[in-house]
């Protein structure tokens, strides 16, 4: 686009120059006689004032005229035509050149550096039907403002009859002299055209660049605006999790795909929420329904054991019934707790807890269990105050220590440490048990997931302990994870935010 505009512009400017040159040419040939041109060869001294008159009349042009006297166009065509041998043609050209050199007047530039046509140009001029060719030449304009630097000129060369006046002193002046044949050169500087084209080029380049930048910025802004509702929907969708299924993404009123997408997302969330809710209610209802009969079974079995005289065989069966119903009661309690945490109602009773004290208390509570299987259970670490529900957290740590004991560890160490520049507290339960193969680590927090079914079931775990631990830690805004190496032991970490505990001075600590 820009390039074609530039070319068009250049062509029209050149056209203007050409027509101006043609005008000058016409005027000049019409004026030659009135200017009182000498037959140029006569004496150049006398023609000097005439030259300056012509220069005054054509200030913008450079002019050169070469009088061919009576050798007209037909003669020239004949002399350079195909009828001649190349040798003859060369000779004729040399002759014409001598003629041109001897009868030349130069106006507007250095006479010592006249315009000279090449052989080819001369032939072209002679053979051109209009007797006219246009050339582009570098000419050093001695009279111009930039006298030293050559300027590009467009030069129109015309071959035709000219009424050359004879000298007024010539007696023959009384008679109308016959027209003379001459080559006229009229040239005009292209500096203006070049300047204009260059300026236009810069302007166009600038416009193009500006347009490009504006288009880029515009596209960026538009794309950003078009994508904003999508971004909002995405951010809202990312916030929604299992605990926050009641939330919905905002539906932007854009009447396009984004609005439809947000609508579909919300419809999907509706379905997810109702199926989650159905599952949760089933677990919760089933647990409730099971609680009463299990209590009844265990109560009646205990009654029989206490109040009757069962035989040895019967006593053993009754003992099994009591033990298994206890397990069932625990399982039902766990299921109920999970169902409650699924519906997002884990009610924490937050209060300040001292990590060291807390762990020693758990150690004291579990000491009988640990010593029962010859395991050393210790609690170490600084007393870091933090905010939490001590009963629920005790449940977590008891489960972790219980897992270590069930795994058959010889030493179990509980410790606490400050993390994240004191903003979080970490409770760790480390054991030297058999460890957990890496492929199980990620799935241990799934419900009912156990590494080795038969052994775990024997030892009474249903595989819900870590799920419950995680729901409690989540409710505290913390994280729980396991690190384990087969053959060396396992470390379970619980990391919690310290929360809003009053900062104690050293003297306040007992
Ligand atoms: N410290 C540990 N060492 C070895 N295995 C472990 C340890 N902690 C947990 N596990 C494995 O993870 C399983 C899941 O633990 P958990 O969710 O507490 O269920 P449960 O204790 O009822 O079996 C356990 O059955 C056990 O196989
Ligand atoms: Mg457990």
SSE blueprint and pairings:
Elements: H1 2-31, H2 44-57, E1 61-67, H3 73-80, H4 86-102, E2 104-107, H5 119-127, E3 132-139, E4 151-162, E5 180-189, H6 191-239, H7 257-307, H8 312-342, E6 351-354, H9 355-372, E7 376-380, E8 385-388, H10 390-407, E9 411-419, E10 424-431, H11 438-441, H12 453-458, H13 465-475, E11 479-485, E12 489-497
Parallel strand pairs: 7-9
Antiparallel strand pairs: 1-2, 1-5, 3-4, 4-5, 6-8, 9-10, 10-12, 11-12
Helix pairs in contact: 1-6, 6-7, 7-8, 8-13, 9-10, 10-13
The chain binds adenosine-5'-diphosphate and magnesium ion.
Adenosine-5'-diphosphate is lined by residues 399, 403-404, 407, 431, 433, 436, 444, 450-452, 456, 461-466, 490.
How would you describe this structure to a colleague?
This protein has 510 residues and is of the alpha+beta class. It has three domains: 188 residues; 86 residues, Orthogonal Bundle (Helix Hairpins), CATH 1.10.287.130; 158 residues, Heat Shock Protein 90, CATH 3.30.565. The chain has 13 helices and twelve strands. A five-stranded antiparallel sheet has the order 2-1-5-4-3, sandwiched between helices. Strands 7-9-10-12-11 form a five-stranded mixed sheet. Strand 9 and strand 10 form a beta hairpin. The two termini are 87 Å apart. The structure holds adenosine-5'-diphosphate and magnesium ion. The site of adenosine-5'-diphosphate has 19 residues, from helix 10 and helix 13. It is found in: Cell membrane.
């Amino acid at each position: 686009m820009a390039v074609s505009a530039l070319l068009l512009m250049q062509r029209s400017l050149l056209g203007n120059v050409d027509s101006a040159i043609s005008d000058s040419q016409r005027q000049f040939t019409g004026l030659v006689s009135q200017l009182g041109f000498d037959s140029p060869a006569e004496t150049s001294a006398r023609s000097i004032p005439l030259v300056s008159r012509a220069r005054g009349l054509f200030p913008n042009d450079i002019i050169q005229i070469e009088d061919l006297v009576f050798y007209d166009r037909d003669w020239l065509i004949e002399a350079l035509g195909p009828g001649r041998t190349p040798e003859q043609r060369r000779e004729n050209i040399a002759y014409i050149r001598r003629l041109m050199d001897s009868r030349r007047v130069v106006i507007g530039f250095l006479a010592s550096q006249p315009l000279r046509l090449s052989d080819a140009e001369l032939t072209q001029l002679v053979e051109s039907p209009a007797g006219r060719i246009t050339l582009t030449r570098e000419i050093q304009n001695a009279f111009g403002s930039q006298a030293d630097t050559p300027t590009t000129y467009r030069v129109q060369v015309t071959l035709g009859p000219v009424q050359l006046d004879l000298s007024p002193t010539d007696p023959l002046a009384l008679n109308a002299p016959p027209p003379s044949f001459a080559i006229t050169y009229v040239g005009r500087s292209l500096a203006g055209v070049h300047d204009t084209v260059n300026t236009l080029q810069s302007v166009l380049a600038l416009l193009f660049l500006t347009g490009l930048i504006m288009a880029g910025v515009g596209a960026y802004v538009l794309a950003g605006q078009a994508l904003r509702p999508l971004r909002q929907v995405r951010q809202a969708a990312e916030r929604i999790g299992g605990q926050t299924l009641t939330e919905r993404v905002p539906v932007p009123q854009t009447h396009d795909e984004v609005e439809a997408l947000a609508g579909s997302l919300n419809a999907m969330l509706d379905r997810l929420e109702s199926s989650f809710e159905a599952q949760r209610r089933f677990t919760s209802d089933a647990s409730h329904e099971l609680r009463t009969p299990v209590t009844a079974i265990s109560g009646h079995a205990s009654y029989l054991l206490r109040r009757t005289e069962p035989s040895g065989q019967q006593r053993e069966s009754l003992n099994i019934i009591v033990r298994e119903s206890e397990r069932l009661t625990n399982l039902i309690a766990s299921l109920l707790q999970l169902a409650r945490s699924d519906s997002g109602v884990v009610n924490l009773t937050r209060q300040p807890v001292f990590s060291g004290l807390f762990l020693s208390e758990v150690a004291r509570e579990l000491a009988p269990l640990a010593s029962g299987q010859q395991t050393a259970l210790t609690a170490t670490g600084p007393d870091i105050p933090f905010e939490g529900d001590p009963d629920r957290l005790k449940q977590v740590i008891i489960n972790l220590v219980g897992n270590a004991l069930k795994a058959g560890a010889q030493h179990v160490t509980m410790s606490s440490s400050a993390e994240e520049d004191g903003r979080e507290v970490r409770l760790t339960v480390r054991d030297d048990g058999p460890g957990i193969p890496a492929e199980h680590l990620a799935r241990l927090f799934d419900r009912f997931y156990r590494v080795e079914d038969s052994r775990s079931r024997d030892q009474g775990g249903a595989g819900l302990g870590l799920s419950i631990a995680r729901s409690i830690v989540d409710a505290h805004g913390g994280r729980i994870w396991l690190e384990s190496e087969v053959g060396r032991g396992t470390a379970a970490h619980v990391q919690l935010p310290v929360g809003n505990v009053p900062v104690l001075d050293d003297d306040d600590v007992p």
